[in-house]
Write a structure and sequence with these properties.
Elements: E1 6-14, E2 17-22, E3 25-31, H1 33-43, E4 48-52, H2 64-73, E5 78-81, H3 87-96, E6 100-103, H4 105-109, H5 112-121, E7 126-135, E8 145-146, E9 152-159, E10 164-169, H6 170-180, E11 184-189, H7 201-210, E12 215-218, H8 225-232, E13 238-241, H9 243-246, H10 252-261
Parallel strand pairs: 1-4, 1-13, 4-5, 5-6, 6-7, 7-11, 11-12, 12-13
Antiparallel strand pairs: 1-2, 2-3, 7-9, 8-9, 9-10
Length: 270
Amino acid sequence: MALTKRIIPCLDLKSGRVVKGTNFLGLRDAGDPVELACRYNDQGADEVVFLDITASKEGRSALIHVIERAADELFLPLTVGGGISTTGDMTALLRAGADKVSVNTSAVKNPGLINEGAEMFGNQCIVAAIDARRNDEMKDGVNEIVMPDGSVCWYEVVIYGGSKPTGIDAVSWAKEAEERGAGEILLTSMETDGVKQGFDIPVTAKIASEVGIPVIASGGVGNIQHFYDGFVKGHADACLAASVFHFGEMTVRDVKEYLLRRDVPVRMDW
C-alpha cells in the first residue's frame, strides 16, 4: 500500500498573530494561530506547522505560550520553528507540546545543532527547514538545476527570514542535513512564496531525488491543482500551504477529496 501524502497548513507567526506575505514581504494579518489551527484540525489536516518568522532575526526564542495553547486543543502533530538555536530551545518547545522542531538559520550557522537534536530527541523530531532562492550566476561546486525554459541555475540557501544569502547550495545542504540526522526537509522557495503560481517544481524534485527522507514542498499554492503537481511532478511527500487555507479559498478536506479523485493516496478519517 502506498504511503499517504500529507497536507500541512502553515501558520507564520509575528507578534503572536498569523501573518502572510509575498516573497517573504508585505505581511498581512490572517488571524489567531490557535483558532486557525483548530479549524485545520477539524478539516482533517495531517499536521500543522507554526513558524515564528521573526524570532531568529530578533534574536529570541519561539512563542512558547502560543504552542502551549495549541497543544492543549489540537489532536494532530505540531511542528514548531523560529529562533531555535540550542537543544535547550528544542527541549522547551517539545515540553510545551510540539511534536517536531524545525531549524533553519541556526542550523546553517551551526550544523552540529542537527546532530545534537537528533541524538537527544530522535531523527523524527528534527526538521531541517531550507529557504532557497534561485541564483543564475553559476559557480563550481553547485548542483545545476534545469528550468522548464531550458535555462540552468542553482538554488542558494538564504537565512534570517530570507534576508541574508549564504552562498550555500540548497541541494548540498539538504543532503548534509540528512546525513547529520534530520528526519525531514521543509523546502520553501522564495521565488514562489505567496505568488500563487504553484510550487517551485524544479528545485523540489531535485532535492527529493537527492535525499532519502521526506521532503515537504512549501511556497506558491494558488489553486488545488498545485497540490497535485507538488506530489506528482515535485515528488514531495507533503505539501504545505498557508494563505489559500487562511483566507478560505479552499479547505484541507477539499484538497484531499480532489487528490483522491486523482489517485493520490491521502489519509481520510472523517
